[in-house]
Amino acid sequence: ANALILLDAIGVDTSSVVHADPSLSGEAARLKAADNLQASFDKGGEITIQGSVTSNESRSKDGVDYNFNWAKGGNLSGGEINLNGDFDMGFYVGTEEATPVKIDSTVINSVSDVAMSAKALNEDITLSNVKLTSDHGGLYASEGPEELILNNVTINASNAAWEQTGSKWLDSAGIASNDAKVTINNGFYKGTYAVYVAPSQADVTIKDGTFVGVVQADAAEITIEDGTFNGNLVSANGGLITINNGTFNMPLRFILYTGGK
Fold this sequence. Notes:
The protein is mostly beta strands. The chain is 10% helix and 49% strand. A hairpin with a 2-residue loop joins β3 (59-61) and β4 (64-70).
């Protein structure tokens, strides 16, 4: 289904596609072209979106509903993806095969609880010059052990507070949990929680960037090598924040506590 959406978005002329079965035409040809395109993604293929693509449908994976599922590998660049369905997650990206994923210069707009969920299971995931806008949560790095790398990423969570209440995630720029490994090289991250690391073995390193909102390590660790921060630093329930450098544009206020949020 993803490949069909992308075929429509880039205007693939199915009449010019060479098929193994020459009897295919019309809608059957379009479906076959989508299958071929998806197979290319899964082997590390690449596609560029020139315009805008919209998805209103839900796809279920591991009991979670997504708008868009990019599960195995390959590269995506350019364009704008509008995810209109209000589901658990908007865009799922994972390296379930031993193929890296690179997404470059793509705008993703979502109204789901979380705009993007990333699982770097077998290879790295790299987001470069990507912009996420969300009515709720921004980016959820949920699993490793490989690395999620953010280069000049912009995340704007409109309602600006990401909390976990049962299974519901609301309104923040970024979160990491489980064994996720995240390196933020630069970019802009805005939410009441600009970065929130849930109780876990997650490894989050901030090398640079601008962060508008709280940066919190909740029974977890964050390393800050540099960056500009407009919000409190919170260490909760034994969390550790290590600061090597940085610019703090408000009175530097450390909050340490044990217990609920």
